[in-house]
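Sequence, please.
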């Protein structure tokens, strides 16, 4: 199955987050200086925020458009659910 461009980008970002998280774990196991670990944790959070943004943009661009045509009320409920999960 071919992923959309947005999901491809989100997957790449998720893998970067995974690699950085592995680095955080190694740093903690190595008793690294806390501010350095925190900086890497912030990097993981940034990657994951970007993953969420890419997935949401793709969903709004394709899936929600289709759902709005099929069932507007259900699409609105789904958008509200995503909004609440994002905050």
């Amino acid at each position: 199955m071919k992923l959309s461009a947005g999901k491809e980008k989100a997957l790449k970002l998720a893998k970067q987050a995974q690699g950085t998280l592995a680095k955080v774990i190694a740093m903690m196991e190595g008793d690294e200086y806390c501010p350095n670990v925190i900086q890497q944790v912030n990097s993981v959070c940034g990657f994951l925020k970007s993953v969420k943004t890419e997935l949401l943009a793709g969903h709004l661009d394709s899936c929600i458009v289709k759902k709005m045509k099929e069932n507007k009320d259900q699409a609105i409920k789904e958008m509200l659910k995503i909004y609440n999960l994002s905050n």
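The chain is about 90% helix and 0% strand.
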